[in-house]
Amino acid sequence: MGVLAPVGNRLRRILFNRNVFIGLVIVYGLMFIFLSPSSPWAYEVRFFGQNNLQTSAASSSRRRMTNHPPLPALKPRVPCYGPRGKLLSESPDDELEEVNLNIPFPKPWTGSYEALNLTQTWSTAQGRYGAYGFGETANSYNRSRVDWDKINWQDLQTQCLHRNAHRFPLAALTTNNSSLLQMPPRFSYPNESKIHNLAPQWHEFGATRRTALVVRTWRGYAYKDEDMHYIRSLIVEASLRTGGEYQVILLVDMHNHPVDILASKENYLEALRVDAGVPKEFLGMAVLWDSQLLKSWYPDIKEHRTIFQVYQPTQLFALHYPEFDHYWQLELDMRITSDAGAFLDQLSEFARMEPRKQSLERAMFQHMQPRIGDYESFVSAVDAANNGSTHAWGPLRLPDIDPIGPEPPTADPRDDNFKWGVGEDADVIVTSYCTNASVAYHWQYRNWIHGFQTGKKTPMIFCPPAIMRSSRNALLVIHEAQHVQALRIPSEATPPSFALWHGLKLSFPQHPVFYWAKNGAEDEFQDAWWKGGPKNSSTGAGPDVTDHPRGWGLSYWWQSVWSRQLYDAWEGRQLAEDVGFPWILAKPEEADGKVYMPSNLMMHPIKHHT
Ligand SMILES: *[C@@H]1O[C@H](CO)[C@@H](O)[C@H](O)[C@H]1NC(C)=O
Ligand SMILES: *[C@@H]1O[C@H](CO)[C@@H](O)[C@H](O)[C@H]1NC(C)=O
Ligand SMILES: *[C@@H]1O[C@H](CO)[C@@H](O)[C@H](O)[C@H]1NC(C)=O
Ligand SMILES: *[C@@H]1O[C@H](CO)[C@@H](O)[C@H](O)[C@H]1NC(C)=O
Ligand SMILES: *[C@@H]1O[C@H](CO)[C@@H](O)[C@H](O)[C@H]1NC(C)=O
Ligand SMILES: *[C@@H]1O[C@H](CO)[C@@H](O)[C@H](O)[C@H]1NC(C)=O
Ligand SMILES: *[C@@H]1O[C@H](CO)[C@@H](O)[C@H](O)[C@H]1NC(C)=O
Ligand SMILES: *[C@@H]1O[C@H](CO)[C@@H](O)[C@H](O)[C@H]1NC(C)=O
């Protein structure tokens, strides 16, 4: 290698490490011939589709993935510019202030700092969000102030990607433009689409090593200061501090907007600038959609409402913006209490290093340290409950699904010593535990399943809330199932169930979640969720009892109310009289009233005060 110039090195790396890309060089030249001015993105689909040497078998049976070696680590991150015009590596004003307090760190109710390798530090709301404008109107604000209206976050993201371009495969860079806004909108109706294959297959795309953070929002959303701090923190920490490994997108539901936004570029831009309500600094990273778009792509799925089909816009986003390997679907009513990029990296890393064997079963129990000890003990207990076997070894076969996932390396899962899948990125990462829909009698959507030959007997798991990461591969098979076959299941069941059916890797990294009571008062509540744990499960796939008390007091759950209280107390807002000061926050005597929050907490939901 040493004798070759840097450019040669790069080519050699591509050619030798990833044999898929033989022919790439020639094609990279041809790309400019294919590239038509009206479709700046269509070529990449064609490019990888037509020139992939492994596509030779033009049979009707679908191509399965093979078990491949783990992807090599990316080169070191190159620092990027932040909103203060300085490199983030040289700008203390852009930094979070995290401290160690000389007090015991609170013990999570579920999940584990240790298992996910999450740091345990503390910060005030000012220390965490000050860089993004929290407290900037106060005289005591001692960071340089930013004129946020003058910031173009999309430019900062693009600039960062360019500075780091050498770290990513070409597939990540083929859409090289400074702004999604400046491009014609990529979304289009299928009858007018420039995408060569309306339901492309996983193998038509090369790895890009990038992850989209798709933040759902809608027309009429009232962006409050806290939303602004949150969105800016995601961009700086996940996108800019990682050297472009993530990119933040606002996916805007234009609901009830009377204009056909896709009828012309003018309509679209007018809607974006005037009607979408997106704050100026984020305009360049907004992508608009409406229900007409969903109906046009999924006409036989009679339901497009978010409550049933929250993934449809993200599926279409993956179809039109395939320059990402993974897509996190995030909400505006969530927060991450310390560096968001570091947190998401650890979820991803945990999922990558998790073996496939029993990853489903481990996702169906909660890891409660007070009940079972460390993660290894949890893993052993799940293994014992399954007698060393698993409910999902390779694709879970359904007549309607032609799976894409790889064959297991051994016929019997008991012959695999928790090796399969280690080092492989997860296709679906869920953020809370999963339940078998067949036995979840209390789940209100349990019979909402259509289009399958197996009808309501179709095996399905659901893992609320619908905050998950899905790979492009997973989203494209879901897209195809909806577009071509009109198969549909409820939102929170969609990515995990499709992962099961296709034999794609599923993972639940059990991040720390806290509960509002402590000192023994939480015991009864914990028992009611624990249900005896893996040991008391007759199936090995989750507790036999699927019902549980309401999760109001959890820091992360779909129906939590404590998350808002936690955030309010941290920000120094007055809590209602009957609301106690959250026990996990610290108010050290010597810190004159400052309130500290534990790091690496993902909180949800945090609804606006009305
Ligand atoms: C834990 O994460 C840190 C980065 O925060 C990393 O340097 C370290 O290697 C990780 N440790 C393990 C065991 O993965
Ligand atoms: C700014 O104020 C915070 C406390 O509000 C303090 O921790 C920090 O050290 C100060 N920074 C500078 C540069 O003075
Ligand atoms: C992308 O554009 C930037 C300038 O805007 C340029 O420096 C860079 O080389 C371009 N990358 C590719 C792959 O075309
Ligand atoms: C980037 O956008 C500009 C319009 O702003 C367009 O002229 C140019 O062709 C685009 N470049 C690429 C590589 O898509
Ligand atoms: C394509 O479909 C959309 C909506 O489904 C419709 O509004 C539009 O007129 C159609 N375009 C053509 C060229 O048929
Ligand atoms: C594991 O083996 C025990 C004892 O043979 C049996 O009772 C139990 O049902 C088995 N569990 C599973 C998940 O197969
Ligand atoms: C064990 O599961 C049974 C249902 O199979 C349930 O009735 C019982 O309460 C559970 N035990 C504990 C300790 O939760
Ligand atoms: C879900 O429950 C059904 C009915 O009891 C059972 O047949 C199936 O194996 C279960 N699936 C999983 C993944 O546990």
UniProtKB/TrEMBL annotation:
Positions of transmembrane segments: 20-43
Pfam families recorded: DUF3405 (PF11885)
Domain of life, source organism: Eukaryota
Keyword terms, alphabetized: Membrane, Transmembrane, Transmembrane helix
Which InterPro entries does the UniProt entry name for this protein?
A: DUF3405
Say if the entry is tagged with keyword Transmembrane.
Answer: yes
This chain belongs to the protein called Uncharacterized protein
Species: Apodospora peruviana
